[in-house]
Amino acid sequence: NKMKIVARPTDAMLKKYTPLPTKNNPEPKPECGTIYVEFCPDASGVGTKQVRNFNHTVDEQNYHSGIFITRTPISPSAIRLLSSIPGHICEHFQEQDLLVNITRHELVPKHVLLSPEEKAQLLVRYRLKESQLPRIQVSDPVARYLGLRRGQVVKIIRKSETAGRYASYRWVI
Q1: In this structure, how many other beta carbons lie within 10 angstroms of the beta carbon of residue 39?
Q2: Which burial class, exposed, middle or buried, applies to 162 when counting CB atoms under 10 A from its CB (0-12, 13-18, 19+)?
Q3: What pTM did the predictor assign?
Q4: What would the pLDDT profile of 78-124 be if each residue is shown by its tens digit?
Q5: Quick one: 1 exposed, middle or buried, by C-beta within 10 A (0-12, 13-18, 19+)?
Q6: Which phi and psi angles does 144 have, rounded to 5°?
Q7: Distance set, CA 66 to CA 37, 78, 149, 169 (Å)
């Protein structure tokens, strides 16, 4: 039981993950919720059995997202099974991927997720469509670490010798 964690989002996080209201959806629901994290105790051969148990817990308890952490890589069939729960977002990380916080490395600039309002203001300010922004892949290590989803925009703040700080924006694809 100590290898299982449940985390609820803060009000600020709920606000950042709530899309803007539209005519079809005047009161949108946040695209985030309770997260379930499970560390798999099996040191060898993590497969579909362990993933099925994890999926069952996520689905039964109605968690929004699940993070499955293992010591060893999981099989390709288990990876497909992990993303098979409709309405739930499940991810897999290996322990060695999480030993170092990559966002604290001196060569990795600060990444900040923009709220839907900030994203809309950015697009209006620069007269852009979101497809005209530079892109960052969902599979990028920092994007995976931050849990970024397709369609979101992240602000990347870098150090600059001439300007002090320089901000750029990336659209998550």
Answers
A1: 15
A2: exposed
A3: 0.85
A4: 999 998 888 889 999 999 999 999 999 999 999 999 999 999 999 99
A5: exposed
A6: -65, -45
A7: 6, 14, 14, 28
